[in-house]
Amino acid sequence: MIEISTDKHRLNIDYIFSFLSQSYWANKRTIEQVKESINNSLCFGMYKEGKQIGFARVITDKVVSSYLMDVFIDEKHQHQGYGEQLIRYIYQHEDLMQVKSHYLITKDAQTFYHKFGFKVYPTPEKFMIKR
Fold first, then answer.
1. CB under 8 Å to 130, separation ≥6 — which residues?
2. Three-state secondary structure readout of 55-109
3. Does position 127 have pLDDT exceeding 80, yes or no?
4. Is residue 119 part of a domain?
5. What is the pLDDT of residue 23?
6. What CA–CA distance (Å, rounded) separates 107 from 118?
7. The domain that contains 50 carries what CATH number?
8. C-beta of residue 88 within 8 angstroms of C-beta of residue 78
9. 94, CA 20 to 30 Å: which among 5, 44, 56, 112?
10. What residue numbers bound the domain in which 25 lies?
11. How many CA atoms are closer than 13 Å to the CA of 26, on its beta-carbon side?
């Protein structure tokens, strides 16, 4: 049985850090940075038989925009529909129902996110970022 929870006390921080440290997008984050990002985000843990198998977090103001980040399903559980289940759950969450625009950045999962209404946005020169 799959369960999805926003209870941060249930999150396995070491597991999340271990996965993120192997990812292309978060491999330079320290465990302290991962903890802080979790503390300041709406987080979703996915559990199978009580064991965490997935994670995602959202930064949002609950009205204008949300930014989906750090989505993953454990490799042993991929290609079984759990990722789709997690994303559907996230966008049915009460804190995200009124949000006008949802954003994410992905290098390789555009096809997956198209199923949920995301479109590749051609980046105009007006798009700005500060690092």
1. none
2. EEEEEECCCCEEEEEEEEECHHHCCCCHHHHHHHHHHCCCCCCCCCEEECCCCCC
3. no
4. no
5. 95
6. 14
7. 3.40.630.30
8. no
9. 112
10. 2-114
11. 22
CA distance 77 to 131: 34
Dig out the tokens for 86 from the structure.
């997690």
The token pair that represents 43 in the structure block: 């987080």
Rounded Cα distance between 86 and 70, Å, is: 12
Is residue 130 domain-resident?
A: no
CB within 8 Å of 87: residues ≥ 6 apart: 56, 71, 113, 116
Quick one: tokens of 83?
């990722």
Distance CA 97, CA 73 (A): 23
Question: pLDDT digit string (tens) for 53-84?
Answer: 999 999 999 999 999 999 999 999 999 999 99
Q: Does some domain include residue 127?
A: no
As for how many domains the chain has, the answer is: 1
* 124 assigned to some structural domain: no
pTM: 0.93
